[in-house]
Amino acid sequence: MRASLAAVLLLMAAQAQVSLAQNNANLKTITVTGRGDGKDAAMADAKRRAVEEGAGSIIYSESQTRDFQLIKDTVLARSAGFIQDVRELGAGEEDGIYWVKIEATVSIQGIVDMWGTVKNLLQSMGRPKIMVWVTEKIGDELVEDSTVQARIENILLESGFLLVDRERIKQLIKREQDIAVLEDKPEQLIALMKKEGAQIFITGSANATGRPQNTGGMQLFAYEAEANMRCYNADTGQLVSRVPGKPTRGVQREWRSAAKQALDFQGKQIAPVVQGNLLQFWMDWLGGIGELILRVEGVSFSDYVELEEQLKQLPDIKDINVEYSNDMATFSIQSQARALDIAKEIAKKIKTLKISDVSANVIKATYKPAQ
Asked: Which of 72, 233, 294, 368 has CA atoms 20 to 30 A from the CA of 274?
């Protein structure tokens, strides 16, 4: 009996050691230093660096695969989700740049799982296409080729996104006022984006203002630039991200050079933020997570009320907001399920709806009264 008990205890100890070894193999402790224009930005940079270092062997093994850069950037945009524990070792500021040193425990299996998910989604859905348009001014003068837009486009191209050609956009948007008109009329904005096959539209404005100043008997021009960017989902017209820029400064002997320098610094500052927000949104969009739109045609008001109650009974729907006009009901649905999965549930359980189209975030249907 004692021998059997001892054997069981030894077996349990061996299994515990195996489990501990497996757990230790999954977790890595990384010490890194992050930098940014604030404490939060420095911490986010440190976490990203910790995940990138922890996933070094994975990244190396996948470096020759298709869409490698886009997969890598998408995974690293979720870096906070792979860190199980963080200990701050030190922090400070040097020349206006904040730094923070951390010791982070990184989940390697989490990175492996996310990498595989993003890779599979890319293979099935392809790379997203983006339209970027920035209205840029120096004083009151409209600049034809935006410096800030170029910075945003370059960082998105480096990540592997597809972009609508700038010259093509100029043909579509011939006047500065067109952007304001489109933003007030989302349906026109959606039509424009879809016409060019874009899933995401990034727009905004950048402006540089300045004046001459005398420094040590030398006349210099000092300009300050600032930009504000917005990102829209082409499927729904929903504003998914707003990025306000922080002022940047340029000083040169010639006024235009000073203005361009300030705008270039602004582009360098705001482009990575736009990229990070876009990667976060795009990952949700790929998985169909977030807001879904269900558009139902040919439905009376009384039938719409009944339909809303039926939709609320579906287990994957968390919340619903509705607009009703001219026999058309538009349901804004909050869900953690994909549009395709919601559409399947609707087809099974709500027989009065005939689904005609399903995209990443939009379901279209026609109401058919029960016979």
From this structure: 294
Residue of 369 and 148 predicted with greater confidence: 148
Residue 361 is given by DSSP the state: S
Q: List, for residues 3-41, the tens digit of each pLDDT value.
A: 444 444 344 444 433 333 344 557 888 899 999 888 888
Residues 327 and 227 placed together within one structural domain of the fold: no
Q: How many domains does the chain have?
A: 3
Q: Which domain holds residue 184?
A: 129-286
Closest to 25 measured CA to CA, from 107, 101, 95, 91: 107
Q: Two tokens at 112?
A: 């492996």
Q: How far apart are CA 322 and CA 110, in angstroms?
A: 37
Q: What would you measure as the largest C-alpha separation in the chain, in angstroms?
A: 99
Report phi then psi at 287, rounded to 5.
Answer: -85, 0
Residue 230 shares a structural domain with residue 135: yes
Tokens 């120096």 belong to residue: 138
Confirm if 253 and 219 have CB atoms less than 8 A apart.
yes
Whether the Cβ atoms of residue 110 and residue 83 lie closer than 8 Å to each other: no
The last residue of one of the domains, among 238, 259, 286, is 286
Q: What is the pLDDT of residues 331-344, one digit of tens each?
A: 988 887 778 888 89
CATH label of the domain that carries residue 121: 3.30.1660.10
Q: Are residues 55 and 80 in the same domain?
A: yes
Alpha carbon distance 194, 192 (integer Å): 6
**Could you tell me if 86 and 193 lie in one domain?**
no
One-letter amino acid for residue 275 of the chain = Q
Name the token pair of 269.
């500052």
Same domain, yes or no: 28 and 154: no
